[in-house]
Amino acid sequence: MARYFARIPVPITRSAAFDYLSRFDRAAEWDPGVEAGEMLTAEPVGVGSRFRLVTRFLGRRIPLEYEIVEYERHGRLVLRAESSSVRSEDTITFEGRDHGSVVVYEARLDAKVIARLADPLLAIVFRRIGDRAADGLRTALATVPA
To answer: What span, in angstroms and rounded, lies between the C-alpha atoms of 114 and 85?
Structure first.
């Protein structure tokens, strides 16, 4: 299993960051590994909201359907997705500061078709993908109205 962790300081409030990221279809705006995203359920966003993302991983297009399984307004989001080849869980927490906030992003990826011997390689690739996504998220959140 590959894991990724990042603390991302952003210049907007915790509530603005939460509202932006709870619409997970927006991942296509900030994650270069996501080609497209769409919300599959109606507003308002909450537990049970679902999003389809089309991702690129190791040269393959992988559609993933994420569902919000934990939703603590302005505090914490947990999303899960599973396909025939991968299982993913993203936990996003939001910390307030005097000026701006910190987004804490934790992701776990379990590739079902890759042998356990390939886990170290998967971890390296996942870290690179995560770093690019964190950079994109930092840039995107800098433009969201506080």
So the answer is: 8
